[in-house]
Design a protein that fits this description.
Blueprint lengths: L1 H22 L9 E3 L8 E3 L4 H16 L5 H23 L5 H6 L4 H6 L5 E4 L3 E4 L4 H18 L6 H24 L7 H19 L8 H18 L3 H7 L1 H14 L13 E3 L5 E3 L9 H7 L5 H27 L1
Antiparallel strand pairs: 1-2, 3-4, 5-6
Helix pairs in contact: 1-2, 1-8, 2-3, 2-8, 2-9, 3-9, 6-9, 6-11, 7-8, 7-9, 7-13, 9-10, 10-13
Length: 333
């Protein structure tokens, strides 16, 4: 455990160093910036901050190798995040086709499938369990696509995607403790290892990405975070709690895709779902051409500025995280 703590501290330092010295200071000079469209003055913000997550977990893995503490499960999660991160970098740089990106995200699940680091039984509430060792590899690929793209589509406001990811990861750790206590911990890999690798850099990214954002995540960050959630859930047998904890971003993705009639990129929208007033107040776009998103529904409930929307989304996610932990009791009791 001491070796993993050292690796976690080094990974966190590497993330911080890359954010402050590279993303914040160097990316703008290279033209790697995005426009904060929900601010009246439309400021330019350093983009692709998610590369810091890839640097941080890479540093973690290098240190665990040097200290002879790298486990098979950690390697599978690391490779899954890196594959998603590379796809995100390609999308940030080359703007992948709206159908190609979700298809490529299935590749992120291959390390878990090829290394066999997934459970052979799918546990559901009330002691219902399915032995699906033949079908499960396909479900792994689909699950990674869903989690990665749901977080990617939930990058709607400052801090929403990174804050949501942080809360979901904490919920998975607490759900694992429920599983450990209820089942007696027999034959269970420690999720603490995965949490030490993933959670600190994700939380640090949220600190810089929260309102008002100092950096944007880019698809590099959102796809990596979504893949991290999916990988942790699958490797440690927390699939059902993960679905419950992820319900807010999944619901947002469902609303967006259903109202638009299929997959889409933000650049294709003829009407944006949100209107920004001169005073910075936000309002729902009444145009029928604007996609129905969870953000529009939140605006109709009375949230009218970006900071309050972030708070509202975090509260919703915390509620679903609590529900996920409670569901864990029914799954493993």
């Amino acid at each position: 455990m001491l070796e993993l703590l050292v690796a976690s501290v080094m990974g966190l330092w590497a993330t911080y160093f890359f954010i402050t010295r590279v993303v914040v200071k160097m990316f703008p000079s290279w033209g790697i910036v995005g426009v904060d469209v929900h601010k009246p003055d439309k400021p330019s913000i350093p983009e692709m901050g998610g590369t810091a997550l890839l640097v941080g977990i890479s540093c973690f893995v290098v240190v665990t190798i040097l200290l002879d503490a790298l486990t098979y499960e950690l390697l599978a999660i690391f490779l899954t995040i890196m594959v998603a991160g590379v796809i995100g970098i390609a999308d940030d740089v080359f703007k992948l086709n709206k159908r190609v990106k979700p298809a490529l995200c299935m590749l992120a699940g291959l390390p878990i499938v090829l290394m066999g680091t997934y459970p052979k039984n799918l546990a559901l509430p009330f002691s219902i369990s399915f032995h699906i060792s033949t079908l499960y590899p396909l479900l792994v690929l689909v699950a990674l696509t869903v989690t990665a793209n749901s977080i990617n589509m939930f990058d709607v406001m400052n801090g929403v995607a990174s804050g949501t990811s942080s809360v979901v990861l904490v919920a998975l750790v607490l759900s694992w403790f429920v599983k450990f206590i209820v089942t007696g911990g027999s034959g269970m890999a420690s999720i603490i290892d995965g949490a030490l690798m993933v959670l600190p850099p994700v939380a640090l990214l949220f600190f810089y990405n929260r309102y008002p954002s100092k950096i944007f995540l880019g698809d590099t960050g959102t796809l990596s975070m979504g893949a991290a959630i999916g990988a942790v859930a699958i490797v440690y047998g927390l699939e059902f709690p993960a679905v419950v904890a992820m319900m807010v971003p999944i619901t947002n993705a469902f609303f967006s895709i259903f109202s638009h009639g299929g997959l889409f990129e933000r650049s294709e929208l003829k009407e944006r779902p949100i209107l920004i007033g001169e005073d910075g107040r936000l309002s729902s776009n009444p145009s029928p051409k604007a996609p129905l998103t969870l953000t529009r529904l939140m605006l109709l409930l009375g949230y009218d500025n970006e900071k309050d929307l972030l708070t509202g989304f975090m509260e919703l996610t915390l509620a679903m995280a609590l529900a996920a932990i409670i569901c864990g009791v029914f799954v493993w009791w």
